Amino acid sequence: xxxxxxxxxxxxxxxxxxxxxxxxxxxxxxxxxxxxxxxxxxxxxxxxxxxxxxxxxxxxxxxxxxxxxxxxxxxxxxxxxxxxxxxxxxxxxxxxxxxxxxxxxxxxxxxxxxxxxxxxxxxxxxxxxxxxxxxxxxxxxxxxxxxxxxxxxxxxxxxxxxxxxxxxxxxxxxxxxxxxxxxxxxxxxxxxxxxxxxxxxxxxxxxxxxxxxxxxxxxxxxxxxxxxxxxxxxxxxxxxxxxxxxxxxxxxxxxxxxx
Length: 259
Prior knowledge:
Number of strands: 2
Shape: globular
């Protein structure tokens, strides 16, 4: 690719292929190779973070997040981009694997005749919650992030971490679990009918993965003993989820009231 002398973004002189001031890559005209290079850098970054982030979040999730917030940001996929990447893939495959009751509709649950804050509305909300958990798992988890973060921040006020750093922790967690949701969604078409003691096998695997990943990340990130990590981790998940459900229930009834 031909070199240019002046960066079109910041007007600085190029010294090599990239601008030393803003990082803009040198080019005169767009080409297929330039677009492909940009796609790899901006979306996949296979050589610059995605695979490394994926691997480290399996092996040492809490330590990886610590490395990221301590400044090693270049070699890892950013937390929000990591979450969006797996969420996008999840949303693409779900329509081809969904086997839920096609008669259920969130709109019908909101617009039916059940009064707000009644037993009927609570039942409606329960089915909406199940629908979100099973068919919109990643969207549901994205909404859960700020509630887990706030709860975890309160339970670890003695730590050196601020709210944003703990938010990064939970964003990475939900991004990694988004991958688990993808795998389990694909597997459910094969093992969906298998049960253990009356419980669906795919649901069991999802719950085991969810709790194990969360508690391991807590242990490594905050550096507490397993006993403290399990106690606080379980409490954070339960309290954070409860607060999230309360807010969702209030929003749900607000929508019912508006109809």
